[in-house]
């Protein structure tokens, strides 16, 4: 007998079973996709019906207007707006200053070499940028608590020396200077107060701040104090080296007075190197 007949029928191959399973899986996946697609169609249909039944909303102004089509303002229009705004900015006086919480707005340039001249907004500057020499205008500041705006540090085109620089961010310190000066006066009136750089046993003294145009006046004043009035109070002469740079021998006459042995009372010289001093 043949050995093949004794082994019985051959079992089906495994790849046929795997193919059948794969076909069943693909069929189930296809059916689920059809169900999801029908459900999505129904949802879209319902949303379109709801939107068609609701009243139509008006298009927004931003969507109906092309912002790029708006022409830029002319220089005349900008100057007119700046002029109208300037009329609402008040003048700050000592009486209205007081203790306030200030915020810098910026430098406002004006024409006619006057802080009261017509506005020139094209030359405005921010608070941190130095104001160019030769420009007239003012710093605009705002009282944070009340919202009021004021003009401070008003400047003509020739108000300051050519080497003097300032920024509007310093406006708050400028405004508070009278208050701090009054505090210094009140402090100096205390009996125990003494001047710096002076002998603590001497309370009174004379302080002079000089620059090239005042040297002759200071010289005459010191001679009158020492020779005419017989004043023996110590004298402090303060000066900025930068202002005397082009006049190297400017202090020589005053130095001769300080070295005069017939004068009683010290005459001393002190440099002003503070960046805030202008």
Mean pLDDT: 80
- Residue share in β-strands: 5-15%
What is the 3D form? elongated
Number of strands: 7
Radius of gyration: 43 Å
**Unreliably modeled segments:** 1-8, 44-65
Major sheet: arrangement of strands: 1-4-3-2
- Listing every helix as H and every strand as E from the N terminus to the C terminus, the arrangement reads HHHHEHEEEHEHEHE
> Structural class per helix/strand content?
alpha/beta
Largest sheet data: 4 strands, mixed
**Separate helix tally:** 8
- Distance, first to last CA: 129 Å
Helix content: 25-40%
Task: Give a quick summary of the entry.
It is built from eight helices and seven strands, in the order ααααβαβββαβαβαβ.
Protein described:
By secondary structure, the protein is of the alpha/beta class. Among the domains are: 75-177, no CATH class; 187-271, no CATH class. 38% of the residues lie in helices and 14% in strands. It contains eight helices and seven strands. The chain has helices at 3-6, 14-53, 61-64, 75-87, 94-97, 171-188, 215-228, 252-259, and strands spanning 90-91, 102-110, 136-143, 149-155, 206-209, 235-239, 267-271. The protein has a four-stranded mixed beta sheet with strand order 1-4-3-2, with helices on one face. It has a three-stranded parallel beta sheet with strand order 5-6-7, covered by helices on one side. 11% of the residues are buried. The model is unreliable at 1-8 and 44-65 (pLDDT under 50).
Give me the secondary-structure topology:
Blueprint: H1 3-6, H2 14-53, H3 61-64, H4 75-87, E1 90-91, H5 94-97, E2 102-110, E3 136-143, E4 149-155, H6 171-188, E5 206-209, H7 215-228, E6 235-239, H8 252-259, E7 267-271
Parallel strand pairs: 1-4, 5-6, 6-7
Antiparallel strand pairs: 2-3, 3-4
